[in-house]
UniProtKB/TrEMBL annotation:
Record protein name field: Adenine deaminase
Any Pfam family matching the protein: A_deaminase
Organism: Agaribacter flavus
EC code: 3.5.4.2
Site feature: Important for catalytic activity: H220
Classification lineage: Bacteria, Pseudomonadati, Pseudomonadota, Gammaproteobacteria, Alteromonadales
Positions of the catalytic residues: E199
Cofactor dependency: Zn(2+)
Cofactor note text: Binds 1 zinc ion per subunit.
GO terms, molecular function: hydrolase activity
Reactions mediated catalytically: adenine + H2O + H(+) = hypoxanthine + NH4(+)
Limits of the Adenosine deaminase domain: 11-326
Role according to the record: Catalyzes the hydrolytic deamination of adenine to hypoxanthine. Plays an important role in the purine salvage pathway and in nitrogen catabolism.
């Protein structure tokens, strides 16, 4: 059993986090009032009570609806700053966050609105909290590839602010192969690549993400365990999987936390890490994820330390900064 003190005080990196998924019901309520938006809920408690999901799509429907309260620069600043304060609480010293630009541009809120807000909070966190942040520009896979290409073009002025591109949203029926061109274009521009694969989708989607999109990390990837050849490839090449246990539980990827395969993957030699995904919607930030794993799977201190070390090892930090934390 790992102690909660150790979980709390170990410096950590978080590598799989959607900034829009950190919107707490209190801030959603406050911003709805500010912008005269009528929410389909009667109270903050009613918002939280609505967070019961059957699968990924039932979550995404609420997640996109929730993001509609984010309208001006200061809203995005507040969203980012609130998450970075949570990082401080959980001793996350480095975070690599996904931003979903199309969630905003499709409702008339452009890069020139959300990027300055995010950047203001990130700069303040570096200075006041000592936390470093990288951003990942993530494409919505339920939309056509053409839309992703246009989004990459619209981001031009902010290329220096993103370390990588990613792929998220509804996985089933939207395989990585749909996005080969936009990932090739992003790679030619110097971006690193990651993609959600093997969350609800089959191992074949993980193969496609690796072979067709040339990703350096797989987000989720827990269904890789169904394919022994893929497992061998992930171990031999030490390709990181950014696993999100509480997300998997809340979206019914697993029925019980005690059935989660993360520690088995770790013990089999995979480079797995623990992450929160959408902590407001799933009810746990990173330490909460470690704590529920520990409760359900009786994680040893050795496994905990390995998972935390993996988070730095799998990060996009320069080697000398990684070494500082390892
Ligand atoms: N967008 C936000 N969270 C996601 C998840 N867990 N899977 C796919 N897309 C997402
Ligand atoms: Zn995710």
């Amino acid at each position: 059993m790992a102690s909660n003190d150790l979980i709390r005080y170990l410096p950590k990196a978080e590598l799989h986090l959607h900034i829009e998924g950190t919107l707490e019901p209190e801030l959603m309520w406050q911003l709805a009032n500010k912008h005269d938006i009528v929410l389909p809920y009667e109270s903050v408690e009613a918002i939280r009570a609505a967070y019961q999901f059957e699968d990924l799509q039932s979550f995404l429907d609420l997640y996109y609806q929730g993001a509609d309260v984010l309208r001006d620069e200061d809203d995005f600043y507040q969203l980012m700053w609130a998450y970075l304060l949570k990082c401080k609480e959980d001793n996350v010293v480095h975070t690599e966050m996904m931003v979903d630009p199309q969630t905003h541009t499709h409702r008339g809120v452009g890069f020139e609105v959300f990027m300055p807000g995010f950047k203001r909070a990130i700069k303040q966190a570096k200075k006041e909290l000592g936390i470093s942040c990288y951003l990942i520009l993530s494409f919505l896979r339920h939309l056509p590839e053409e839309d992703a290409l246009q989004t990459l073009e619209e981001a031009k002025e902010y290329y220096d602010d993103f370390i990588a591109v990613g792929l998220d949203s509804s996985e089933l029926g939207n395989p990585p192969s749909k996005f080969e061109n936009v990932f090739a274009r992003a790679k030619s521009l110097g971006f690193k690549c990651v993609a959600h694969a093997g969350e609800e989708g089959p191992p074949e989607y993980v193969w496609q993400a690796l072979n067709l999109l040339q990703v350096e990390r797989i987000d989720h990837g827990v269904r890789s365990a169904e394919d022994p050849v893929l497992m061998r490839k992930l171990v031999e090449n030490q390709i990181p999987l950014t696993v999100c246990p509480q997300s998997n539980l809340k979206l019914n990827v697993v029925d019980e936390m005690s059935q989660h395969n993360i520690l088995k993957l770790l013990d089999d030699g995979l480079l797995v890490t623990v992450n929160a995904d959408d902590p407001s919607y799933f009810g746990a930030y990173i330490n909460g994820n470690f704590e529920s794993l520990d409760r359900a799977l009786d994680m040893s201190d050795k496994q905990l330390v390995k998972l935390v070390k993996n988070s730095f090892f799998a990060s996009f930090l320069p080697e000398d900064e990684k070494e500082y934390w390892l």
